Amino acid sequence: MPILKAALSYFAIVFTVGFLCGAIRVVMLEPMFGPTAAVLFEAPILLMAMLYAARFVPRRLRLVPTSAAHLGMGFAALMLVLLADLGVGVMVRHLSFAEIVATFSTPAGRIYAALLLLFALMPWLVNRRARSA
């Protein structure tokens, strides 16, 4: 249960930042610079949110500092992000499931996929010192 609570908190922080950045990206940056450049503008902000949340949440919730807990937190949060992205894509952007999956074959989609992988691994990556203490 603590891992799920940590995953939900991690997801909530990063998804909120991503949702706000995504709105700015789609409405303002993509028309001006194109989708790939817009995602590249957004990526550092998302990385900072991930770094902050991946360190803050385990400490705040006193998650047991083990690799299994940190990886569990990250990958459970990834599942939540994928479900939320699907919901936003279908309900807000009116995309089909096939259209959502197809976006991952674009350069912007591949950058986003790399960010998703980092999102899942970030709790494990940034909490190495806590695990060795």
Keyword list:
6 helices; mainly alpha; 133 residues; elongated; single chain
What does this protein look like?
The protein is 86% helix and 0% strand. It is elongated and about 50 Å long. It is mostly helical and 133 residues long. The two termini are 23 Å apart.
Count every helix, treating DSSP H or I runs of 4 or more residues as helices. Answer: 6
What pattern of helices and strands is seen along the backbone? Answer: HHHHHH
Tell me the overall shape.
Answer: elongated
Determine the structural class based on helices, strands and strand pairing.
mainly alpha
Percent helix, as a range, is: over 70%
Query: What's the pLDDT, averaged over the residues?
Result: 95
| E-strand count | 0
Tell me the Rg in angstroms.
Answer: 15 Å
How much strand content do the residues show?
under 5%
**Major sheet characteristics:** none
Unreliable segments (pLDDT under 50, ≥5 consecutive)? none
Kindly, what is the distance between the CA atoms of the first and last residues, rounded to a whole number of angstroms? 23 Å
Short description, anyone?
The chain is mainly α and 133 residues long. It is built from six helices and no strands.
Question: What are the SSEs and their pairings?
Answer:
Elements: H1 2-33, H2 35-60, H3 67-92, H4 97-102, H5 107-126, H6 128-132
